[in-house]
Every structure is written in C-alpha cells, then in structure tokens.
Amino acid sequence: MALGAVGAALALLFASASAQAVDHAMRLQQIIGSAKIAANEKRYDLALQKLRALEDGVAQWREHVHRAIAEAAEAEAPAHAAEESEPPEPSIDFEVNVTFTPPKCPRKSMEGSVMKVHYVGQLVKTKKTFASSFHTGSMPYRFTLGSDEVLGAWNEGLVGMCEGERRRLMVPWTMGYGAKGDKGVPPYSDLRYDFELVELNNPKIPKAKKSKSEL
After folding, report:
1. Residue of 16, 41, 43, 12 whose CA lies nearest to 29
2. What stretch of H or E contains 165?
3. Domain PPIase FKBP-type spans what residues (predicted)?
4. Cα(141)–Cα(116) distance, rounded to whole angstroms?
5. Measuring CA to CA, how many Å separate 123 from each of 88, 135, 177, 196?
6. Which class for 126: exposed (0-12), middle (13-18), buried (19 or more C-beta within 10 A)?
7. Could you read off the pLDDT of 77-124 as tens digits, one per residue?
8. Helix (H/G/I), strand (E/B), else coil: 98
C-alpha cells in the first residue's frame, strides 16, 4: 500500500466523515506518520509493522462506514413508514340536515332529476370555502341527480328535495375527494356543503300501456 495514496484517501475521508470516523482517521494518519519516520530511519521492519497496522485500521474504518450507512438507513425507515401509514379516520359522519323547508312542495327530486342549485363548499377543518356557485356570477349549478357529474354524496344527500328547500351535507373524506384531494381540497379533507334548490325538472315517466283486457 503506497503511503501517499493512503494519505490522500484519508484526507478525503477526514473531510466528509462523522465525528467518530474522523477520530479513527486521525489515528490512521498517526500510523502513517510513524511508518514514514521508521522508513526514513531505515527501520524497515518497524515500517512494515506500521503498514500492516494501517491496513488493519483501514479495514476497521471501512466496517465503521458500512455500519454508519446502515444506521442512517434505519433512521430514515420510520419516516418512510409514517408516510405509508394508514389514512386518518374521518372527523365526521355523513349527515343530511334540512335547514329550510318551503311551505309547498309539489314535487321532489329523484334519480334522473335535473337540478339547479346554489351551493357553498367548505373544508370542515379550516372553514375555508373551496367551491361555490356564487363564484360563477351567481349562476346556479346544473346537474343530473344520480349521474357521475357530481360526488356520490350529492347523489345520496339531495334525493327528495323540494324547490326552495335548503340542506347541509356533512361529507367525510371517504365520500368526498379521498386521498388525492382536488383543487382547493387537500387530501383526506372532510367537507361541508350548503345547498338551495332553485329549480327542479323531474324525468318524465311513461304511462303504463293498458292491456287488451282493460280496453
């Protein structure tokens, strides 16, 4: 092993290693110094002995570095485990609350109804509004009940609604935007929606044909 090459390698290791490894590197440098002195004094047996000690020291240092790398990997493992941990429990249950009922209700919403609603969507945790029909110039939002145009929570919570009726839906993240979230909605967000049904058009149900016996 060339003393110059070993010295250069130790200099690099000294600059980048941990405190414990630096102490070890300093001891190796001392061995190099002793070997140089012995060689200059032509005490070659002692110089060879120091070189063997140096080789043993480098091997020990290598083991230390491998051990330090393994410990660092173990330290990072809990952080990765936390990232991959199970999703949080919703802070609310799904709820449908009627906040206003009009005096007359000639018809109610059903699957297939075309509904126009004003609505405001808020994050339960921060009460921040993330969506609203009033953001579109106060134009009500139009959709078909039971379709994939809206969240399943809407399809479930807005059945049997009258024109002029108001409802509040409490939507757990499992029925909202889930683990991915959406624009303005962080992952695992529980939601609150306030609705007012302003216009309702129910699907036409064809009349049953009379049988020949009824004619």
Report:
1. 12
2. none
3. 112-201
4. 5
5. 16, 16, 11, 19
6. exposed
7. 665 555 567 899 999 999 999 999 999 999 999 999 999 999 999 999
8. strand
The Cα–Cα gap between 80 and 71 comes to: 15
pLDDT at 55: 79
Is pLDDT above 60 for 180?
A: yes
Q: Tokens in use for 11?
A: 């200099």
d(CA 128, CA 105): 33
What are 42-86's pLDDT values in tens digits?
887 887 887 787 777 777 777 776 777 777 777 766 655 555 678
Q: Residue 139 contacts by C-beta under 8 Å, 6 or more apart in sequence?
A: 133
Helix (H, G, I), strand (E, B) or coil at 166: strand
